[in-house]
Amino acid sequence: xxxxxxxDNALICRxxxxxxxxSMFLLVTGCGFFSPSSNNNKKxxxxxxxxxxxxxxxxFFYKYYGNYLIQKxxxxxxxxxxxxxxxxxxxxxxxxxSKPDLIITWKxxxxxxxxxxxxxxxxxxxxxSDINLEDYYPEMISTLQNDTGQLNGLSPTVNPSVVxxxxxxxxxxxxxxxxxxxxWDEMLSLTQRFIGSGTTGLTGKSPVGVLSAIAKSxxxxxxxxxxxxxxxxxxxxxxxxxNILDSxxxxxxxxxTGELFIQGKAAMYYGTLDMVPKLMEKNSFAWExxxxxxxxxxxxISSDINFYDIFCISKEASQKEAAWxxxxxxxxxESITYLQNNSIPGSVSTLSKYMNSQYGNIDLSAIWxxxxxxxxxxxxxxSRSFIDQFDEIVDAVLTKAIxxxxxxxxxxxxxIEEQTEILYQEEFxxxx
Length: 432
Known about the structure:
The protein is of the alpha/beta class. The chain has helices at 8-30, 58-72, 88-98, 107-115, 122-127, 138-144, 167-172, 184-192, 207-218, 234-248, 259-262, 275-282, 320-330, 336-342, 365-368, 384-403, 409-431, and strands spanning 48-54, 76-82, 102-105, 157-166, 200-203, 253-254, 266-272, 287-291, 301-302, 305-306, 310-313, 348-349, 371-372.
């Protein structure tokens, strides 16, 4: 048998050609930054610095979000700018000066940034990426859109408050269980049925906290929109103050972090979902949850569903693409376990299909059926400083009335109104 001799030069050329073609193939497929095969590592090979503005101290940023992000994107360097002021106007100045890429903020300051047109519309970025906004909590999308439909922020988690109730104590005292979407009048009336039973009716909310929650749910305003004068509805405020004093003076409304409820000494606890694992561990009585109280005229609207960390991209961001990658990463299914273990206690993922399954068999569907109250507390005309000082005035007046049985609800209201008038004049002159 005769074999033909292969030309060495031809063989070498053919080998070189194959190597070149293979190299080109690897180069094209391996360096596809946005190719599906490298989708989870888009930024891994990109050296970039992302400037983040938030109220977090560095250790809390890394605990809540940063440690997860540096594992996913090791080559992104985070430059953190901590906000100096909680005041919305001061915050906008800080952002204009520091020019961050990513902004992590909360509702009131988010609204100011949105109003000042300082944020990128995330709809555009979402349309050109793999994220499907229809997979997320609809009320988050609705709440964080502006009037023209621009979506200026997203939040990976939502933090609802609920009312926990001890079924055993209700059964023992032959009292009907609380229900979803009760009004505040109904809740306080239910609370008062435990007076004299040796059981505290409601814990987890201070008297000023209850009055503030009533004002939010009912949409009470204290500044006249036309005249800009201070304007209270005396009948509504006095009536609610009376209901609060009736429970507080006999120790039936106590502010704590859930200790009495866990011990089986309180019928109801007003708090967040981080109570769930504590109750499961204790496992000493039967309990369930209902939605927090609402306005009787708007029972489907809640003031207790909160987005504490809203992620936005500045309009002037130099690294919009990297900022958007970070937001997508934190909203992904992959991040859920990390966020539940490390972010603000009581958080729930805003991915719709996981919103009812993160706390065992607890049915949270009644919460997610509610709409979120978008109205500002007391007035959009008032500064954060005014609101804080107003709450301090109310707290001091109610505390004094609880300690002194002779002070009436009318006298409480009159003192609150007079001190608020002085505070408002100071606010008015400061703005002028």
